[in-house]
Amino acid sequence: MSGAAGQVFMKRVFALSLFAFAFSCSLFAQVVDTTVCAVLKNPKSFDGKIVRIKGTVSAGLDQFLLKDGDCGELVNGIWLSYPQGTKAKSGPIAVVTIQPAHNFGGSYTATARTAITLEKSKDFKQFDSQLAQTHGKEPGVCLGCTRNEVTATLTGRLDGIGDASLERDASGKIVSLGGFGNLNEYPARLVIQSVSDVSSMAVNYSAADSVVKGEPIVSSITFDAHDAAGLANQMAGAMGKDDGSVAVQKAAGVFKSTHPGVNVAYGAASEVGDSDDAQSTQDSPDGVFLNCTFNVEKLPKPEQASAVFHIGQHIVDLRAQQANEVSTPFIVEYNAWIVTAAGVARTGGKFLTLPGGDLLFSSTWPPADMNGKMKDALTEFLRKEEMFTQ
Question: 32-92+113-165+185-202: what CATH class?
Answer without folding.
Answer: mainly beta
